[in-house]
């Protein structure tokens, strides 16, 4: 199954959605403030400005041309509102450059008259300018545009603070939401690795999380009991079977006169004994003592156990100085099962098995490769190779066995805190990769 190109864990997904939601709420609040608060205030100020224009118009209409100059001069003395005569040579810039300014200009024209001109600059003097006509003369009334402007730029630092608070709050909320799930995922990973003593908090305030934790702890206890019962059962059966096997071997040696028959019976007894050993290895407790070990020496020791070159031949390429952090006995058991599996199944007809063993440092790991040159395993059966008592196919199971070899390998690698990967080599044969902790 193909993995997605972009995969986010639950924390970042929750954080992203919360941040988007709250950031959208902040921006929506700003826009709502503009619509419901700022714009009505500006339009109210526009009505007041229209009132000033009408007042100045009335004052100028009822003043004779001689006294108008004095009236204009008196009205221009203020800092907020000024009146001046409009000239034909005046240069002005239109005020209605945005949606709101167009609405504001339309409001002023409706209140004052259709021939009203609203400008944001006259003769390069900024302000809010309104031109109106009194008789045959035109006048400019100038005021500050601040009460009539809708600009949230001055509030952007508040917006940035709100967005920053949104990000921090979203991270905290996402962490609080996902912390129980993170603990559950970690505990499930420990259960997968065989640590059945994992326990979750059953006193949390959230009822749903509390019920999940209680169910998980109950499941962990049941799994621990099942694992203990299984180990005791397999160990007990294996131990009890070895006593009658020993008697059978003794009786075979003493009672069977036919040499060939005695040899075949001894081989069957050895095979049963080997199968019982596999049972005991699989049922072994998950107790290991990790220590620094030279990987090359450990590999050579296990290779020396296979002395018959007519059955299996090795090519070892492991740096003598390469060290790993493992349990010697456990890793030796892993290599023994891999080599035995290669001896039985990893060879071509009428040829000895050829096994390549190599190792290389990969960051914090040491990658140990064991590869045979046999027929390999059909891809549809690859995933079940480490299932207890499962055998790949008839071609690879001609030799006798319990079907526990690779299951023991997987379990032992988990005890060592490593990783196991099994696949078909590109040019034939089975390739097993062990990732062990580098020392």
Brief write-up:
By secondary structure, the protein is α+β, with helices and mostly antiparallel strands.
Order of helices and strands: HHEEHEEEHHHEHEEHEEHEE
What is the overall number of helices? 9
Uncertain segments: 1-7, 393-399
| Structural category | alpha+beta
Share of residues in strands: 15-25%
Q: Give a short account of the largest sheet.
A: 5 strands, antiparallel
Distance between the termini: 34 Å
- Could you estimate the helical fraction of the residues in percent? 40-55%
pLDDT average, as an integer? 75
Oligomer: single chain
How many DSSP E strands? 12
**How would you describe the shape?**
rod-shaped
Backbone CA Rg: 44 Å
Which sequence of strands runs across the widest sheet? 1-5-4-3-2
Subcellular location: Cell membrane
Keywords: ATP-binding, Cell membrane, Kinase, Membrane, Nucleotide-binding, Phosphoprotein, Transferase, Transmembrane, Transmembrane helix
Enzyme class: transferase
Domain HAMP: 175-228
Structure overview:
- Helices cover 51% and strands 17% of the residues.
- It is α+β, with helices and mostly antiparallel strands and 439 residues long.
- The protein has helices at 10-61, 65-75, 99-112, 156-192, 207-255, 259-282, 295-303, 328-345, 405-415; strands spanning 82-85, 92-94, 117-122, 125-134, 137-143, 291-294, 312-317, 323-326, 353-362, 365-372, 419-424, 430-437.
- A hairpin with a 2-residue loop joins strand 3 (117-122) and strand 4.
- It is rod-shaped, with a radius of gyration of 44 Å.
- It has a five-stranded antiparallel beta sheet. Strands 7-9-10-12-11 form a five-stranded mixed beta sheet.
- Helix 1 (10-61) packs parallel to helix 3 and helix 8 runs antiparallel to helix 9.
């Amino acid at each position: 199954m193909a993995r997605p190109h972009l995969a986010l864990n639950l924390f970042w997904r929750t954080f992203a959605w919360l941040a988007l939601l709250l950031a959208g709420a902040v921006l929506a609040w700003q826009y709502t403030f503009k619509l419901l608060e700022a714009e009505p205030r500006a339009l109210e100020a526009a009505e007041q400005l229209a009132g000033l224009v009408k007042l100045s118009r009335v004052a100028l209409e009822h003043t004779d041309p001689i006294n108008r100059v004095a009236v204009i001069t008196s009205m221009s003395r203020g800092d907020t509102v000024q009146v001046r005569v409009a000239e034909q040579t005046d240069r002005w810039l239109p005020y209605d450059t945005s949606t709101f300014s167009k609405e504001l200009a339309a409001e002023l024209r409706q209140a004052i008259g259709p021939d009203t001109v609203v400008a944001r600059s006259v003769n390069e003097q900024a302000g809010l300018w309104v031109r109106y006509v009194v008789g045959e003369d035109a006048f400019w009334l100038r005021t500050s545009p601040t009460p009539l402007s809708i600009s949230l730029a001055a509030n952007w630092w508040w917006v940035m603070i709100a967005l920053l608070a949104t990000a921090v709050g979203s991270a905290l909320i996402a962490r609080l939401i996902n912390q129980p799930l993170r603990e559950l995922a970690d505990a499930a990973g420990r259960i997968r690795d065989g640590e059945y003593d994992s326990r979750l908090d059953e006193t949390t305030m959230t009822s749903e999380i509390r019920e999940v934790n209680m169910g998980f702890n109950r499941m962990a206890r049941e799994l621990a009991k099942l694992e203990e019962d299984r180990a005791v059962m397999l160990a007990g059966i294996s131990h009890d079977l070895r006593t009658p096997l020993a008697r059978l071997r003794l009786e075979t040696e003493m009672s069977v006169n036919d040499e060939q028959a005695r040899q075949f019976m001894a081989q069957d007894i050895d095979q049963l004994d080997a199968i019982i050993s596999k049972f005991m290895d699989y049922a072994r407790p998950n107790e290991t003592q990790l220590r620094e070990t030279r990987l090359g020496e450990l590999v050579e020791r296990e290779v020396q156990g296979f002395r018959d070159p007519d059955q299996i031949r090795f090519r070892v390429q492991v740096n003598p100085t390469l060290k790993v952090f493992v349990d010697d006995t456990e890793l030796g058991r892993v290599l023994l099962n891999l080599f035995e599996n290669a001896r039985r199944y990893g060879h071509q007809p009428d040829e000895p098995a050829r096994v390549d063993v190599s190792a290389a440092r990969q960051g914090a790991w040491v990658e140990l490769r064991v590869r045979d040159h046999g027929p390999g395993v059909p891809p549809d059966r690859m995933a079940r190779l480490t299932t207890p008592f499962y055998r790949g196919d008839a071609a690879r199971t001609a030799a006798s066995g319990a079907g526990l070899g690779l299951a023991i390998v997987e379990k032992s690698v988990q005890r060592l805190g490593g990783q196991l990967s099994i696949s078909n080599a590109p040019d034939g044969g089975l390739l097993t990769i062990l990732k062990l902790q580098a020392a």
